Amino acid sequence: MIRRIHSGGPFEEKIGYCRAVVVDGWVYVSGTVGQGDTVIAQCRSALDVIGKALKEAGAGFDDVVRVHYYLPDVSEFEACWPVLSETFGAHPPAATMIQAALIDPKFRIEIEVTAKLP
Fold this sequence. Notes:
This protein is α+β, with helices and mostly antiparallel strands. It has one domain (2-116): CATH 3.30.1330.40. It has helices spanning 10-16, 39-57, 77-88; strands at 2-5, 20-23, 26-33, 64-71, 94-99, 110-116. It has a six-stranded mixed sheet with strand order 1-2-3-6-4-5, covered by helices on one side. The two termini are 17 Å apart. The model has no long low-confidence stretch (mean pLDDT 96).
């Protein structure tokens, strides 16, 4: 059984995807951007959206096993480290940071996660 989770974000309908897909005990959360004027605010906002999708799927940040961070400006990544460390705490996932252009220049970070259902 495949379950799709929608957050109602504007790009979901325009592009044709959902926030997360739950299948075979795994939760795949789409790349998620956040709102705000700073990379830190956008990071927190994106994690909030991801956290809601994980919760709806029956998981949490403790269950995340893989995360990808996409930033147009890699020099901004370090500012997010305290937020990420606080979010994942004692259960850090495997992680990759990639420099990439995002869908709109106003976005400064996009975060994608994979979690295993408990």
